[in-house]
Amino acid sequence: MPLRGLEIWLLLACGVCGQEGGSSDPAVHLVAIPSTAHACSELVFSGAGSHDPQGGAQFFWSLGANSASDALLAVLSGATAANSRELTISPSVLSQTAPSLGGRLEVELTVAFADENRTNLTVVAFANIVGSASQAQPAIFPVGPTQLTMPRSERLELAVTTEEASFALDCAGRDPRRGPGPANVTWYHSFMGAWQPLTSSELTDLAVEPNRVSIGAFTLQAGSSHLLKAEAAFDLQSAAPRPAVLFKVDVEPMPPVKVHILGPRRAAQCGFELEAETWDPVAATSAPEDFQFAWDCFSVVEVGEIDACAELPNFIPARSRRTDGSGASGPKMRVAAGDLPAGLHEFSVTVRRRGLRDTGTVAISSMQVIAGLFTAVQVPFPSYGYSGINDADSVPPTSASVDLRETLSIGSCTAPAVSWRWVLVEDAIPPLLDRVLPTKLVAAEGMLQIQAGGGGTMVPGRRYYHALLQSSFQDIIDALDSVDGRPALGTLSGISVAAATPKFVADQSPSDGAVTVTPETGRSLRTTFLVNTFNWTDELPLDLKYEFIRFEAVGSEGLQVDWDDPTSSRFWRKVGHCFRPPRHSPKAFLQAPPGQHLVVVRAWDPRGQASVVASELLVVDAESDFSVADVTALIARTEVTNDPSQLLQAAIAIAVVADPAVKIRTCRTDSFGTERCDQIPSEEVVRPVLNSLSTAAPFMGSELLGMLGIALEGTIKVAAEPSLQQVDATKVFGDSLNPGNFSEDDNNTEPPEPVFVNISRIQVLPEFLMTVTQLLTTTQQRVLLDQASDPSIGLDGFAAEEVLKALAITMWAIQGSPGADLVSLAPKVRALIDGLGAASLPKVPFGSEQRLRTPPDLSYHAEMVLAKAAPGSNIELAGVNISRDLLGRRLQSCEMDAQITEWYNLNPLFAAPAGFGVTDLVLPNTTIKGLFLRLCGQPVLSEDLDSPLEIDIDIVHPEGVQMGYVVEHLCAVYDTGLGAWSTDGVALKDAVDNESSQLTCLSNQSYGYFAALYRVVREAPPDPTTSPPPVEDDDTGVSVEVILGIVIVVALGAITAGFKARKWYRSRQKVEPEKVEEPEEEEEEETETDSEVSEPPDPDPALTKLRMAAEAGRLTAKEILAHHAGPTGIRQELIWAVDKGYEAKLREARKKAFKNIPAEVYHDSFGKQIPGDFTVVHVKAKAEFQPRKPLKALETLPDTSPSTMSFSPSESLENSPRSQP
């Protein structure tokens, strides 16, 4: 019977205890590493602790009480044949065997010693096997160092990367077409004790992404140590060991307070003031009340002389505790006039944190008091004083001041009669005069400002400070301009230092960086490239952030990029693609579309300085045998990373490769003559992409929305199928396209022909459009929530434009795809448009505008203009002028934002029901302009402006209008209360002629959608009661030729008029209803008064039509609430009409209950039941005709032609009136 591991150790231990030189005895040791293993992982049984003193032992491996697969038996035989002390079981072998092990694997190791007198020993070890054999645990790696020391004033940021294990595809039963999904990363924290989840600890994680941790500054205590651990797993319920990364964080001890003494270097008997400027590096904010101050002073005197500082009144016991400057315990030290004699005095201040045992920080400043009466110079604390760093590209400006208002009883204190000059000094030993700065004196309100100009570069890494030099002689100061070289400051004769600023270091941009891309070539979807940047030098290298950008490779000209000017055509945002926003990690993963690329890394330091480095040329090939498996494999690799930027890269690459591939249809004919065609299903490509993006959407911040817009636009193109829609334009063109108008036959009596326009659209599966809309909604909500806490967060113009492209193609697809559910998506997309403006406005400067456009070469086009005006200002844009006076003067102190959206060949309100208002006049190429205003960040929804708003809208004139017809232009606004287009509240400002390219609409409301409509109507006949204008006499006479010409023209005109009148008379005869004989007595009863009374025009025809439908019971309250309710609610007239219709239905139902007479039912040609009081009208189909002159308005639409069939997204072809027999 083999001994167990514990028995072997006890036996050997007793043997060793009883002998000297126990190390000469043989030993057997076997252990499983790890003791609990995942079913698809590497498992090692180690017998390395076993030894034979004579060195000839043989190791025999076998199974314990387990059955094994052939693969595992082969591994055991191989280890025995190799006489190995270790048995390594690969993930592939273990996963094949795991299902038959019952959760436990036992392995026996038998050691045969060289000494034949010794008995062979057998030891057994076991390992617990848990988890799924078809899926390995994820691999996890740290980003950056795992041991770091940081000051308390900085934010702690840790990150890990997750990916599938390298052997994951070797697991038994693994489906290569399906990925494991995102990795679950759990963070734990330990501080002087046991581990606990980070979510349950006292620390607050500010990061949203699961692979990152961000602890705010000043959260960790100074001098403390912390352990943080990240564990990764696919199945959180599994007991399998999880791979983990351990971080050790040490917080630096409490650093000393930074103190600078501000004050003059030279003063007179007028008195002066010194101020201790303090800053605590470990406190988020600090005030003078947070510190204790202790001033001191001693005079530089000869031996035996009295120390004048000891006699200062500030230090006497009665005043020394004062903190207002008159004592020695406040942030200021004020020396009164005459308290210090002339001489050199040195002041010092010790600053300690209040309430702590702090040794304190001492700052020293020397002061020379000279005889005379002049005011001392004061220097403010500079902006770079806290950090001690300033950009090397520009010398910072500075200034000093002299108070001319102070007076003394012993005399007036005035500005000293000296000359000043600011200089830049390099803090070397000795200090060197680096350059003389332009100096300007400005006197205002009793103060004399001595200002120093900035500019010029400095040597990065060196320390500098400003010094204000003064001299009693102007020529000595002027001579500084011609000083050669960089003399030592102390060698300048006749000059003294009146004041000096705190020292600073000239910051240098990050430099000496390098970048590598591995591998150098690969496939677009099957290769994930690793980009690594390194060797950067900077004053604070650990604070650098790295931005990764991909550029399409250019020809021999090289990469021409403008990094600074957004208006340049070579601006980097226009020609490049940022695939990883700035972060501390020097590594990034790239999924590139096919082509040649250059990868550029941009390193940023905390002060905004940046440097770039480019990689070698990267060549990426497309998959020649692209399949759905390429998509699922790539999605599986990227989902595990939990990196939204990497997932977005994958989606973009898939869209670029798949868009042409899924449109290719390959057909072949088999031996039986049957044609078989193959085509990659686009839905199998799009569905996994959208599902993975939906999972990552909550983790996408504003820096990734631009990439999201590109990914969604490309994905919709992959899913899109071209389609053709027909739009009824009969209400627009009326009977102007009647075939009789195009025929020379005056006897043509054909009735008016319906006019339909064919429109090229795209169709996308409704589930995809719903997913895209929800994706954009989720990400936009996060950006707007982030803005609530940080108003500076927003979308820059380039990212916002990519989102606008995605929204526009989504609306285009919704409008062309069938499905009743899609109608409800249109308001959501319009809401996303408004949200896009709100998310982008924080990045728009006051007094400027930002334009977002979709590409102009598409069948549709959308454009958004964002503008922001400071309080008291107006917004002036092309097409819209918005004055604050429109809303009165009640909000003049608020900033005003304007958002204007224009839609071309794209109707965001396509779901408006036909037959109401002027909705039937909206053509597919009608330009629609939306207006949205905000004051103080709140929407402005006003319908009673003090003066009308002027809105310019582009128009297209129809050509080929027949004689006798005119084009009538009108303005329309979408009435949200009616759910239809209406002319109520808008008016046309000026008349429109054939040369007009725009019309101006006047509106009384400050928001909504506006459109320029037209309709072709019959020209009104001339009024016969109007007398012709008088003809002026002409005494000059008329020649015979002129008279003959007039006669001919009159004759031709009479003939033409006769034909026209004949034709008009016949057309009138044709449509006249049959006359009904009426008694003459009734005609005689009509009085003159009755004939003159006419019904007044309906002020709101759309509302009247809705009200009549509701009263008749054809419009329910549910339909009104869904389609005819706006921000101001439902109109009261509709509520009354619904009540009236309900009462009428109730009365009718009661009558039927008493009569109990069944209504006669008819059936139409499709078997649909129709109540007996309706008549089925069968429309006879007519032959198509071709007009002689096509309409230009229809020519602008893609693939337009008159048709005899009409359908809408929610209506099939069979339901068209033209398809009825």
From TrEMBL:
Residues 1200-1212 have a biased composition (Low complexity). Residues 1070-1103, 1188-1221 are annotated as: Disordered. Keywords: Membrane, Signal, Transmembrane, Transmembrane helix. InterPro entries: PKD/REJ-like. Residues 1077-1098 have a biased composition (Acidic residues). The chain crosses the membrane at residues 1038-1059. Pfam families: REJ. It comes from the Eukaryota. Residues 498-552 form the PKD/REJ-like domain. Residues 1-18 form the signal peptide. This is PKD/REJ-like domain-containing protein. The lineage of its organism: Eukaryota, Sar, Alveolata, Dinophyceae, Suessiales.
